[in-house]
Amino acid sequence: MRVKLLLAFLGLCIMSRPSFADNNIKTAGLAGSWYPGQPAELSRMVDGFLATASGALAQEPAGKSIGVLISPHAGYVFSAPVAAYGFKAASARKVSTVIILAPSHHFSFSGASVWAQGAFETPLGRIEVDTDLAARILSFDKRFTFRKDVFEGAPGQPENSVETQLPMVQRAFPGARIVPVILGYPPDADVLRSMADALALAVGKRDDVLVDVSVDQSHFHTEAQAHEIDGRGLKAIESMDVEALWQGHRDGSMEVDGFHVVTAAMLYAKAQGFGKAKVLKYATSADTTGDKDRVVGYASVIFYKDTASAVAEAGIAGSVLNEAQRARLLAIARGTVESFVRDGKAAEVEEKDPRLNAEEGAFVTLHAHGQLRGCIGNIIGQGPLYRTVRDMGVAAASQDPRFPPVSAGELKDIDIEISVLSQPRVIGSVDEIQLGKHGVIVSRGYFNRGVFLPQVATETGWTKERFLSELCAQKAGLALDCWKQPGTRIEVFTADVFGEKK
Predict the structure, then answer these.
(1) 2-311: CATH class
(2) What is the model's pLDDT at position 487?
(3) Are 289 and 210 in contact (CB under 8 A)?
(4) What is this structure's pTM?
Protein backbone atom coordinates (compact mmCIF):
# COMPACT_ATOMS: atom_id res chain seq x y z
CA MET A 1 0.00 0.00 0.00
CA ARG A 2 2.79 2.39 0.89
CA VAL A 3 4.52 1.76 -2.44
CA LYS A 4 1.30 2.51 -4.28
CA LEU A 5 0.89 5.77 -2.37
CA LEU A 6 4.42 6.85 -3.13
CA LEU A 7 3.97 6.19 -6.84
CA ALA A 8 0.94 8.46 -6.93
CA PHE A 9 2.81 11.04 -4.88
CA LEU A 10 5.86 11.14 -7.12
CA GLY A 11 3.86 11.06 -10.33
CA LEU A 12 5.70 7.99 -11.63
CA CYS A 13 2.67 5.83 -12.43
CA ILE A 14 2.83 4.56 -16.00
CA MET A 15 -0.37 5.13 -17.91
CA SER A 16 -1.56 6.01 -21.36
CA ARG A 17 -1.31 9.58 -22.60
CA PRO A 18 -4.64 11.43 -22.33
CA SER A 19 -6.58 11.62 -25.54
CA PHE A 20 -8.96 14.19 -26.95
CA ALA A 21 -12.38 13.45 -28.31
CA ASP A 22 -14.74 15.86 -30.01
CA ASN A 23 -11.78 18.20 -30.46
CA ASN A 24 -12.09 20.30 -27.30
CA ILE A 25 -12.99 17.65 -24.71
CA LYS A 26 -10.03 16.65 -22.58
CA THR A 27 -10.37 13.24 -20.98
CA ALA A 28 -9.04 12.45 -17.52
CA GLY A 29 -5.46 11.21 -17.39
CA LEU A 30 -5.05 10.71 -13.64
CA ALA A 31 -8.26 8.91 -12.66
CA GLY A 32 -7.52 5.60 -10.99
CA SER A 33 -4.01 6.61 -9.94
CA TRP A 34 -3.78 10.08 -8.47
CA TYR A 35 -7.42 9.93 -7.37
CA PRO A 36 -10.16 7.25 -7.47
CA GLY A 37 -11.52 6.35 -10.90
CA GLN A 38 -14.96 5.33 -9.68
CA PRO A 39 -17.46 8.19 -9.28
CA ALA A 40 -18.95 6.97 -5.99
CA GLU A 41 -15.54 6.37 -4.40
CA LEU A 42 -14.19 9.73 -5.61
CA SER A 43 -17.26 11.58 -4.32
CA ARG A 44 -16.99 9.91 -0.90
CA MET A 45 -13.30 10.79 -0.66
CA VAL A 46 -13.70 14.45 -1.60
CA ASP A 47 -16.85 14.92 0.49
CA GLY A 48 -15.09 13.37 3.47
CA PHE A 49 -12.18 15.78 3.19
CA LEU A 50 -14.57 18.73 2.80
CA ALA A 51 -16.50 17.60 5.89
CA THR A 52 -13.30 17.34 7.94
CA ALA A 53 -12.27 20.81 6.78
CA SER A 54 -15.72 22.13 7.64
CA GLY A 55 -15.31 21.03 11.24
CA ALA A 56 -11.84 22.54 11.49
CA LEU A 57 -13.05 25.81 9.97
CA ALA A 58 -15.96 26.13 12.39
CA GLN A 59 -13.87 28.44 14.57
CA GLU A 60 -13.03 30.73 11.66
CA PRO A 61 -14.74 34.14 11.93
CA ALA A 62 -17.47 34.71 9.36
CA GLY A 63 -17.50 37.57 6.88
CA LYS A 64 -14.62 36.69 4.53
CA SER A 65 -15.25 37.19 0.83
CA ILE A 66 -12.70 34.85 -0.75
CA GLY A 67 -11.49 35.65 -4.27
CA VAL A 68 -8.34 33.53 -4.61
CA LEU A 69 -7.18 30.15 -3.29
CA ILE A 70 -3.82 28.41 -3.26
CA SER A 71 -4.35 24.64 -3.45
CA PRO A 72 -1.86 21.74 -3.75
CA HIS A 73 -1.95 19.34 -6.70
CA ALA A 74 -0.41 16.00 -5.68
CA GLY A 75 -2.09 12.60 -5.38
CA TYR A 76 -5.31 12.97 -3.42
CA VAL A 77 -4.24 10.99 -0.37
CA PHE A 78 -1.52 13.60 0.09
CA SER A 79 -2.94 16.91 -1.10
CA ALA A 80 -6.75 16.74 -1.01
CA PRO A 81 -7.01 16.85 2.82
CA VAL A 82 -5.16 20.19 2.62
CA ALA A 83 -6.85 21.56 -0.51
CA ALA A 84 -10.26 20.88 1.03
CA TYR A 85 -9.75 23.71 3.53
CA GLY A 86 -9.68 26.43 0.89
CA PHE A 87 -12.45 24.92 -1.22
CA LYS A 88 -14.70 24.50 1.81
CA ALA A 89 -14.06 28.06 3.01
CA ALA A 90 -14.81 29.49 -0.46
CA SER A 91 -17.98 27.39 -0.85
CA ALA A 92 -19.77 29.82 1.46
CA ARG A 93 -20.18 32.14 -1.53
CA LYS A 94 -21.78 31.48 -4.90
CA VAL A 95 -19.10 30.50 -7.40
CA SER A 96 -20.12 30.12 -11.05
CA THR A 97 -16.63 30.05 -12.62
CA VAL A 98 -13.26 28.89 -11.31
CA ILE A 99 -10.15 30.15 -13.09
CA ILE A 100 -7.44 27.56 -12.53
CA LEU A 101 -3.95 29.09 -12.67
CA ALA A 102 -1.30 26.41 -12.86
CA PRO A 103 2.35 25.77 -13.78
CA SER A 104 3.58 23.33 -16.42
CA HIS A 105 5.64 20.39 -15.15
CA HIS A 106 6.85 19.27 -18.58
CA PHE A 107 7.39 22.24 -20.90
CA SER A 108 9.38 25.47 -20.85
CA PHE A 109 7.63 28.18 -22.84
CA SER A 110 6.90 31.90 -22.81
CA GLY A 111 3.52 33.40 -22.06
CA ALA A 112 0.46 31.40 -21.06
CA SER A 113 -1.69 28.65 -22.51
CA VAL A 114 -5.45 29.15 -22.11
CA TRP A 115 -8.00 26.39 -22.78
CA ALA A 116 -10.76 28.57 -24.19
CA GLN A 117 -13.59 26.23 -25.16
CA GLY A 118 -15.03 22.78 -24.67
CA ALA A 119 -14.83 20.81 -21.43
CA PHE A 120 -12.69 18.60 -19.20
CA GLU A 121 -13.83 15.16 -18.10
CA THR A 122 -13.42 13.48 -14.72
CA PRO A 123 -15.15 10.42 -13.25
CA LEU A 124 -17.72 12.89 -11.88
CA GLY A 125 -18.70 14.08 -15.38
CA ARG A 126 -17.82 16.93 -17.68
CA ILE A 127 -16.95 20.37 -16.40
CA GLU A 128 -17.57 23.03 -19.02
CA VAL A 129 -15.24 25.90 -19.94
CA ASP A 130 -16.54 29.45 -19.44
CA THR A 131 -15.89 30.38 -23.07
CA ASP A 132 -16.72 34.08 -22.73
CA LEU A 133 -14.36 34.65 -19.79
CA ALA A 134 -11.65 32.51 -21.39
CA ALA A 135 -11.89 34.47 -24.64
CA ARG A 136 -11.51 37.76 -22.77
CA ILE A 137 -8.33 36.53 -21.09
CA LEU A 138 -6.94 34.99 -24.27
CA SER A 139 -7.42 38.18 -26.31
CA PHE A 140 -5.68 40.46 -23.80
CA ASP A 141 -2.08 39.65 -24.76
CA LYS A 142 -0.58 38.07 -27.89
CA ARG A 143 1.62 36.00 -25.56
CA PHE A 144 -1.52 34.22 -24.36
CA THR A 145 -2.23 31.34 -26.75
CA PHE A 146 -3.49 27.75 -26.69
CA ARG A 147 -1.07 24.82 -26.60
CA LYS A 148 -2.72 21.44 -26.25
CA ASP A 149 0.54 19.67 -25.38
CA VAL A 150 1.00 21.86 -22.30
CA PHE A 151 -2.27 20.51 -20.89
CA GLU A 152 -1.55 16.93 -21.95
CA GLY A 153 1.87 16.55 -20.36
CA ALA A 154 4.65 14.14 -21.34
CA PRO A 155 4.26 10.56 -22.57
CA GLY A 156 3.34 8.40 -19.59
CA GLN A 157 3.21 11.43 -17.29
CA PRO A 158 0.03 13.46 -17.78
CA GLU A 159 0.06 17.06 -16.59
CA ASN A 160 -1.45 17.08 -13.11
CA SER A 161 -1.61 20.78 -12.23
CA VAL A 162 -5.07 21.45 -13.68
CA GLU A 163 -6.71 18.02 -13.47
CA THR A 164 -6.16 17.52 -9.74
CA GLN A 165 -8.27 20.60 -9.05
CA LEU A 166 -11.32 19.46 -11.02
CA PRO A 167 -13.02 16.92 -8.70
CA MET A 168 -12.60 19.40 -5.84
CA VAL A 169 -14.30 22.08 -7.95
CA GLN A 170 -17.10 19.71 -8.94
CA ARG A 171 -17.94 18.74 -5.35
CA ALA A 172 -17.44 22.18 -3.75
CA PHE A 173 -19.13 24.20 -6.52
CA PRO A 174 -21.65 21.97 -8.36
CA GLY A 175 -22.37 23.26 -11.84
CA ALA A 176 -19.47 25.73 -11.89
CA ARG A 177 -17.52 26.23 -15.11
CA ILE A 178 -13.75 26.57 -15.41
CA VAL A 179 -11.08 28.52 -17.27
CA PRO A 180 -7.83 26.48 -17.25
CA VAL A 181 -4.67 28.58 -17.62
CA ILE A 182 -1.09 27.25 -17.53
CA LEU A 183 1.62 29.89 -17.13
CA GLY A 184 4.96 29.47 -18.84
CA TYR A 185 8.35 29.02 -17.20
CA PRO A 186 11.01 30.47 -16.79
CA PRO A 187 9.00 33.30 -15.26
CA ASP A 188 8.59 36.59 -17.08
CA ALA A 189 7.48 39.31 -14.68
CA ASP A 190 5.87 41.30 -17.48
CA VAL A 191 3.77 38.30 -18.55
CA LEU A 192 2.66 37.75 -14.95
CA ARG A 193 1.61 41.36 -14.55
CA SER A 194 -0.19 41.18 -17.89
CA MET A 195 -2.02 38.05 -16.74
CA ALA A 196 -3.07 39.80 -13.54
CA ASP A 197 -4.39 42.72 -15.60
CA ALA A 198 -6.17 40.36 -17.98
CA LEU A 199 -7.87 38.55 -15.13
CA ALA A 200 -8.92 41.79 -13.43
CA LEU A 201 -10.38 43.25 -16.62
CA ALA A 202 -12.05 39.99 -17.67
CA VAL A 203 -13.61 39.35 -14.26
CA GLY A 204 -14.47 43.00 -13.68
CA LYS A 205 -17.32 43.39 -11.20
CA ARG A 206 -18.41 39.75 -11.31
CA ASP A 207 -18.61 38.43 -7.76
CA ASP A 208 -19.10 34.77 -8.74
CA VAL A 209 -15.56 34.08 -10.02
CA LEU A 210 -12.90 32.31 -7.95
CA VAL A 211 -9.23 32.01 -8.90
CA ASP A 212 -7.67 28.68 -7.85
CA VAL A 213 -3.85 28.67 -7.85
CA SER A 214 -2.59 25.11 -8.23
CA VAL A 215 0.85 24.85 -6.60
CA ASP A 216 2.71 22.71 -4.08
CA GLN A 217 5.38 23.92 -1.71
CA SER A 218 8.98 22.66 -1.29
CA HIS A 219 10.13 19.27 -2.63
CA PHE A 220 12.33 16.48 -1.26
CA HIS A 221 13.85 17.99 1.86
CA THR A 222 13.68 16.56 5.35
CA GLU A 223 10.48 17.42 7.16
CA ALA A 224 12.28 19.90 9.44
CA GLN A 225 13.88 21.64 6.45
CA ALA A 226 10.56 21.72 4.59
CA HIS A 227 8.84 23.39 7.53
CA GLU A 228 11.53 26.07 7.61
CA ILE A 229 11.62 26.69 3.84
CA ASP A 230 7.85 26.62 3.44
CA GLY A 231 7.42 28.85 6.46
CA ARG A 232 9.43 31.60 4.76
CA GLY A 233 7.48 31.34 1.52
CA LEU A 234 4.10 31.27 3.21
CA LYS A 235 5.05 34.25 5.35
CA ALA A 236 5.77 36.28 2.20
CA ILE A 237 2.44 35.17 0.74
CA GLU A 238 0.49 36.00 3.90
CA SER A 239 2.18 39.40 3.94
CA MET A 240 1.15 39.93 0.28
CA ASP A 241 4.81 40.75 -0.37
CA VAL A 242 5.48 39.93 -4.02
CA GLU A 243 9.00 41.36 -3.93
CA ALA A 244 9.95 39.19 -0.94
CA LEU A 245 8.56 36.12 -2.73
CA TRP A 246 10.69 36.84 -5.80
CA GLN A 247 13.80 37.61 -3.78
CA GLY A 248 13.35 34.43 -1.77
CA HIS A 249 13.36 32.38 -4.96
CA ARG A 250 16.32 34.27 -6.34
CA ASP A 251 18.45 33.50 -3.29
CA GLY A 252 17.05 30.00 -2.72
CA SER A 253 15.59 30.65 0.71
CA MET A 254 12.05 29.85 -0.52
CA GLU A 255 10.74 27.09 -2.74
CA VAL A 256 7.10 27.52 -3.70
CA ASP A 257 6.63 25.13 -6.61
CA GLY A 258 5.05 27.59 -9.03
CA PHE A 259 5.92 30.87 -7.32
CA HIS A 260 5.47 32.69 -10.64
CA VAL A 261 1.84 31.54 -10.75
CA VAL A 262 1.37 32.74 -7.17
CA THR A 263 2.85 36.11 -8.20
CA ALA A 264 0.24 36.63 -10.93
CA ALA A 265 -2.51 35.66 -8.50
CA MET A 266 -1.26 38.02 -5.79
CA LEU A 267 -1.17 40.93 -8.24
CA TYR A 268 -4.70 40.08 -9.35
CA ALA A 269 -5.88 39.75 -5.74
CA LYS A 270 -4.53 43.19 -4.89
CA ALA A 271 -6.14 44.74 -7.96
CA GLN A 272 -9.52 43.21 -7.09
CA GLY A 273 -9.41 44.19 -3.43
CA PHE A 274 -8.65 40.74 -1.99
CA GLY A 275 -5.75 42.24 -0.09
CA LYS A 276 -5.59 39.87 2.88
CA ALA A 277 -4.15 36.35 2.91
CA LYS A 278 -4.28 33.54 5.43
CA VAL A 279 -2.84 30.03 5.55
CA LEU A 280 -5.69 27.71 6.50
CA LYS A 281 -3.77 24.43 6.48
CA TYR A 282 -0.20 23.22 6.01
CA ALA A 283 1.04 19.64 5.88
CA THR A 284 3.71 17.50 4.28
CA SER A 285 3.73 14.07 2.66
CA ALA A 286 5.18 12.73 5.91
CA ASP A 287 1.75 13.19 7.48
CA THR A 288 0.55 10.43 5.12
CA THR A 289 3.59 8.19 4.62
CA GLY A 290 5.50 8.70 7.87
CA ASP A 291 8.69 9.15 5.83
CA LYS A 292 10.34 12.36 7.08
CA ASP A 293 13.48 12.15 4.94
CA ARG A 294 12.14 13.33 1.55
CA VAL A 295 8.91 15.25 1.86
CA VAL A 296 6.75 17.57 -0.22
CA GLY A 297 4.94 20.49 1.39
CA TYR A 298 1.29 21.38 0.80
CA ALA A 299 -0.62 24.49 1.80
CA SER A 300 -4.14 25.85 1.52
CA VAL A 301 -4.22 29.66 1.46
CA ILE A 302 -7.09 32.08 0.95
CA PHE A 303 -6.97 35.67 -0.31
CA TYR A 304 -9.97 37.62 0.88
CA LYS A 305 -11.57 40.87 1.90
CA ASP A 306 -13.74 41.32 4.96
CA THR A 307 -17.29 41.65 3.72
CA ALA A 308 -18.21 43.78 6.72
CA SER A 309 -15.43 46.22 5.86
CA ALA A 310 -16.36 46.14 2.18
CA VAL A 311 -19.96 47.00 2.97
CA ALA A 312 -18.91 49.74 5.37
CA GLU A 313 -16.60 51.25 2.79
CA ALA A 314 -19.10 51.12 -0.07
CA GLY A 315 -19.59 54.71 -1.16
CA ILE A 316 -16.91 55.90 1.28
CA ALA A 317 -13.54 55.12 -0.30
CA GLY A 318 -12.95 57.57 -3.11
CA SER A 319 -15.51 60.10 -1.91
CA VAL A 320 -14.37 63.71 -1.57
CA LEU A 321 -12.76 64.61 1.72
CA ASN A 322 -14.34 67.52 3.55
CA GLU A 323 -12.29 70.33 5.07
CA ALA A 324 -12.38 68.82 8.57
CA GLN A 325 -11.08 65.48 7.26
CA ARG A 326 -8.31 67.16 5.30
CA ALA A 327 -7.32 69.18 8.36
CA ARG A 328 -7.29 66.00 10.47
CA LEU A 329 -4.97 64.21 8.02
CA LEU A 330 -2.62 67.20 7.92
CA ALA A 331 -2.57 67.29 11.71
CA ILE A 332 -1.74 63.57 11.80
CA ALA A 333 1.07 64.06 9.30
CA ARG A 334 2.44 67.11 11.14
CA GLY A 335 2.33 65.43 14.55
CA THR A 336 3.94 62.27 13.19
CA VAL A 337 6.78 64.05 11.40
CA GLU A 338 7.60 66.22 14.40
CA SER A 339 7.48 63.39 16.95
CA PHE A 340 9.57 61.12 14.76
CA VAL A 341 12.22 63.75 13.99
CA ARG A 342 12.51 64.81 17.63
CA ASP A 343 12.05 61.50 19.45
CA GLY A 344 12.61 58.79 16.85
CA LYS A 345 9.06 57.49 17.31
CA ALA A 346 5.91 57.85 15.26
CA ALA A 347 3.07 59.17 17.37
CA GLU A 348 0.27 56.69 18.09
CA VAL A 349 -2.94 57.77 16.39
CA GLU A 350 -6.53 56.59 16.68
CA GLU A 351 -9.25 57.65 14.29
CA LYS A 352 -12.95 56.70 14.19
CA ASP A 353 -14.08 58.67 11.14
CA PRO A 354 -15.17 55.97 8.60
CA ARG A 355 -13.90 58.07 5.69
CA LEU A 356 -10.40 58.22 7.17
CA ASN A 357 -10.51 54.48 7.87
CA ALA A 358 -11.17 53.61 4.22
CA GLU A 359 -8.31 51.74 2.55
CA GLU A 360 -6.70 54.12 0.05
CA GLY A 361 -3.29 55.00 -1.26
CA ALA A 362 -1.65 58.29 -0.33
CA PHE A 363 1.59 60.26 -0.69
CA VAL A 364 3.03 62.71 1.84
CA THR A 365 5.20 65.45 0.38
CA LEU A 366 7.47 67.76 2.37
CA HIS A 367 8.65 71.14 1.11
CA ALA A 368 11.13 73.59 2.65
CA HIS A 369 11.45 77.14 1.34
CA GLY A 370 9.45 76.13 -1.71
CA GLN A 371 11.75 73.22 -2.59
CA LEU A 372 11.00 69.51 -2.42
CA ARG A 373 12.36 67.98 0.80
CA GLY A 374 10.88 64.48 0.67
CA CYS A 375 8.03 62.57 -0.95
CA ILE A 376 7.02 58.94 -0.37
CA GLY A 377 3.73 57.12 -0.61
CA ASN A 378 1.76 53.96 -1.32
CA ILE A 379 -0.10 53.89 -4.62
CA ILE A 380 -2.43 51.10 -3.49
CA GLY A 381 -4.05 51.32 -0.08
CA GLN A 382 -2.59 48.85 2.42
CA GLY A 383 -4.57 49.86 5.47
CA PRO A 384 -6.69 52.75 6.78
CA LEU A 385 -6.00 56.07 5.08
CA TYR A 386 -5.06 57.84 8.31
CA ARG A 387 -2.41 55.21 9.09
CA THR A 388 -1.03 55.41 5.57
CA VAL A 389 -0.64 59.17 6.02
CA ARG A 390 1.07 58.63 9.37
CA ASP A 391 3.49 56.03 7.96
CA MET A 392 4.25 57.97 4.79
CA GLY A 393 4.94 61.06 6.88
CA VAL A 394 7.68 59.16 8.69
CA ALA A 395 9.02 57.78 5.40
CA ALA A 396 9.07 61.19 3.67
CA ALA A 397 11.02 62.68 6.59
CA SER A 398 13.55 59.87 6.91
CA GLN A 399 13.63 57.44 3.96
CA ASP A 400 13.58 59.43 0.72
CA PRO A 401 16.95 58.40 -0.80
CA ARG A 402 17.30 61.78 -2.53
CA PHE A 403 17.60 63.69 0.74
CA PRO A 404 19.16 63.33 4.20
CA PRO A 405 16.68 62.82 7.06
CA VAL A 406 14.88 65.94 8.19
CA SER A 407 16.52 67.49 11.26
CA ALA A 408 14.77 69.08 14.23
CA GLY A 409 16.12 72.47 13.20
CA GLU A 410 14.31 72.22 9.86
CA LEU A 411 10.85 71.51 11.24
CA LYS A 412 9.82 75.16 11.39
CA ASP A 413 10.52 75.51 7.66
CA ILE A 414 8.72 72.34 6.56
CA ASP A 415 5.26 72.49 5.02
CA ILE A 416 3.29 69.32 4.33
CA GLU A 417 1.17 68.30 1.36
CA ILE A 418 -0.98 65.16 1.13
CA SER A 419 -2.22 63.42 -2.02
CA VAL A 420 -5.02 60.87 -1.56
CA LEU A 421 -5.10 58.60 -4.59
CA SER A 422 -7.81 56.87 -6.57
CA GLN A 423 -7.44 53.23 -7.65
CA PRO A 424 -5.06 53.11 -10.67
CA ARG A 425 -6.44 51.83 -13.98
CA VAL A 426 -4.60 50.55 -17.04
CA ILE A 427 -4.95 52.63 -20.21
CA GLY A 428 -4.57 51.59 -23.82
CA SER A 429 -3.26 54.90 -25.18
CA VAL A 430 -1.39 57.90 -23.78
CA ASP A 431 -4.07 60.01 -25.44
CA GLU A 432 -6.20 59.22 -22.39
CA ILE A 433 -3.76 61.06 -20.08
CA GLN A 434 -4.87 64.53 -18.97
CA LEU A 435 -1.90 66.48 -17.63
CA GLY A 436 -2.60 68.08 -14.28
CA LYS A 437 -5.51 65.73 -13.62
CA HIS A 438 -3.90 62.31 -13.92
CA GLY A 439 -1.00 60.82 -12.07
CA VAL A 440 0.79 58.23 -14.18
CA ILE A 441 2.53 54.92 -13.43
CA VAL A 442 4.83 53.26 -15.97
CA SER A 443 6.23 49.77 -15.49
CA ARG A 444 7.99 46.96 -17.31
CA GLY A 445 8.09 43.77 -15.30
CA TYR A 446 7.84 43.92 -11.54
CA PHE A 447 11.00 45.78 -10.56
CA ASN A 448 11.07 48.67 -13.07
CA ARG A 449 8.28 50.96 -12.00
CA GLY A 450 7.87 54.71 -11.61
CA VAL A 451 5.14 57.15 -10.67
CA PHE A 452 4.53 60.88 -11.04
CA LEU A 453 1.74 62.55 -9.10
CA PRO A 454 -0.66 64.81 -11.06
CA GLN A 455 0.88 67.98 -9.65
CA VAL A 456 4.26 67.20 -11.26
CA ALA A 457 2.93 68.27 -14.66
CA THR A 458 1.52 71.49 -13.20
CA GLU A 459 4.70 72.36 -11.29
CA THR A 460 7.10 71.65 -14.15
CA GLY A 461 5.05 72.84 -17.13
CA TRP A 462 6.30 69.84 -19.13
CA THR A 463 4.62 68.68 -22.31
CA LYS A 464 3.06 65.23 -22.20
CA GLU A 465 6.01 63.76 -24.10
CA ARG A 466 8.53 65.31 -21.69
CA PHE A 467 6.42 64.24 -18.70
CA LEU A 468 6.34 60.61 -19.85
CA SER A 469 9.99 60.55 -20.88
CA GLU A 470 11.15 61.92 -17.53
CA LEU A 471 8.90 59.44 -15.74
CA CYS A 472 10.48 56.54 -17.64
CA ALA A 473 14.05 57.68 -17.06
CA GLN A 474 13.95 59.34 -13.63
CA LYS A 475 11.51 57.15 -11.77
CA ALA A 476 11.38 53.77 -13.51
CA GLY A 477 15.05 53.50 -14.57
CA LEU A 478 14.03 52.77 -18.14
CA ALA A 479 14.79 54.29 -21.54
CA LEU A 480 13.37 57.75 -22.20
CA ASP A 481 11.03 56.39 -24.84
CA CYS A 482 9.85 53.34 -22.88
CA TRP A 483 6.32 54.73 -22.88
CA LYS A 484 6.23 54.23 -26.66
CA GLN A 485 7.42 50.63 -26.52
CA PRO A 486 5.13 47.56 -26.64
CA GLY A 487 5.01 45.78 -23.31
CA THR A 488 5.19 48.93 -21.19
CA ARG A 489 2.28 49.10 -18.79
CA ILE A 490 0.76 52.56 -18.28
CA GLU A 491 -1.75 53.32 -15.55
CA VAL A 492 -3.45 56.54 -14.51
CA PHE A 493 -5.03 57.73 -11.29
CA THR A 494 -6.38 60.94 -9.84
CA ALA A 495 -5.43 62.61 -6.58
CA ASP A 496 -7.11 64.81 -4.01
CA VAL A 497 -4.23 67.17 -3.19
CA PHE A 498 -4.20 69.54 -0.20
CA GLY A 499 -1.59 71.03 2.06
CA GLU A 500 -0.71 73.33 4.93
CA LYS A 501 0.45 75.99 2.49
CA LYS A 502 -2.58 77.37 0.70
Answers:
(1) alpha beta
(2) 75
(3) no
(4) 0.65
